Amino acid sequence: MVSSFLTHAEVVIDPAVPIERWGLSDVGRTRAAAAHWSAWAPGTTRIVSSAEQKAVETAELLGRAVGVTPEIDARLGEIDRSATGYLPPAAFEPVVDAFFARPDASVRGWERAVDAQNRIVRAVREITADDDVTIVSHGAVGALLLAHLRGVPIDRALDQPGMGSVFRFDARAWRAESGWTRVTP
Description:
By secondary structure, this protein is of the alpha/beta class. It contains six helices and seven strands. Strands 1, 2, 3, 4, 5, 6 and 7 form a seven-stranded mixed beta sheet that branches. Helix 1 (26-33) packs parallel to helix 3 (53-66) and helix 5 packs across helix 6 (139-150).
C-alpha cells in the first residue's frame, strides 16, 4: 500500500499578498490538473491538503480528476517563515540554505527545520494510519518528511526539483518508495 506526497504547482508570486494566500498560476493549474497521472495510486481513498491556498487549489484540481473531495489539515502547512514574509529570490535562497544546513536553529525567525519535521511527520503518520492518501503540501516540509522516511539527516539535497513534484511512500513500513519526480502536463 502506497501513499503520495505532492507539492503544490507553480504560483503567482505577489509580495503584497501573504504567502499562504498565493494562488496557482496558469502553468500551475495545468500541472495540477495533470497530477492524477503521477500522484494518484490505485487504492488511494483520500486527498488531504495543507490549508494554504496554493495547496488547496492543487488538491481541488486533483480531486476533480479522480472524483474525491479533498480534506484540509493545517498541520501540513509550509515552514513558518512569517518572521520575514516574502523575500526576493536573491535573499530567499541563502535563508533556505541556512534553514536546511542548521536544522536546530531558527534562521531569521523562521520555524526550525527539526520542529517542522516533527510536525509534518506526526501529521502524515496520523493521516495515513488507516488509508492510502495523497498528501498535498509544500516542498520544504516534503524534503523534511523524505529525510525522515529515508532515515537520513535533514539536507537541502532532498528538496523537490520544482513545484508540482511527487514522491511515493509506504506509511505502514514508514519508508520512501521513490524520490521526487515532476508532474508533467
